[in-house]
Amino acid sequence: MLSRPRRKLVGSFAIEGAYSLSLRPFTSFAFRAALALGLATAATGLATVRAYADDEGGDAPRVLFFGGMCPNCELSGRKLPLARFLGANFVGASLVGADLRGAAFFASNFTSADLAKANLRGASLFGSTFIGANFTGANLAGVQGNGVNFLNANFTQAQLAGAVLPGAQLIRVEARQAQFVGAQLLGANLTDGHFERASFAKAHLDGATLSGASFAGADFRGASLVRAELVGADLSGARGLTQSQIDQACSSSATRLPSGLTPRTCKGGAHVIILPQSSQTRYIITSEPGS
Question: For the whole prediction, is pTM greater than 0.85?
């Protein structure tokens, strides 16, 4: 007769109706709206949530709910598909090679967590923080989340094909050879990031900020750059860029472009507005007329 695996209670809390969150002042209006929308979605229909961690290293026999605090937890290699992290603090946790397919991360903190080679295919990341997290070689294909904070994260050789991450904070990330094929990065901030040899083929970067980022050898074939901010970006070694794409974006003399392409300046900036529409999210790019 098989015995049930022992579990350790990590923490618990209750959600009663709507709640508010104080946002840090550096975030943009669009990011704040996106985060609030994500948190509201997470709260709907949820009652008391208890957090359990399997302390025997075995596979999870059912969906697990995580909340409370578990900093520096060791969960490498664990099989946690469809796990739910709600308001959880996993700062510095190790989930190297963990199976997190379809997992949901709502308003959780994974700052400096190690998710190298983890499988997060189809995961939801709404309102969560992954500052300085390591996603080297991880599979994030099809992940979704509005305004997720990936400041200083490492996405080297990570797979993000089809990811839906409007308003994502990708400032100063390391994303060499990462795959953003078909990803939706509307209004995302890629400032000062390293995207050498990454692929943005058929990606949507409308209203995104690429200022100061490096894209040597990056593939932009079929990418949409409507009102994207390219001032100060190094695209001189990028592949697949056309004059038509540059004409739709906003650049300047400080933008380094491939030979034969000329910058186009814009008046004013772009704003990404995220509006709920049934269970979908609709994106609108607005700006002042360009020159």
Answer: no
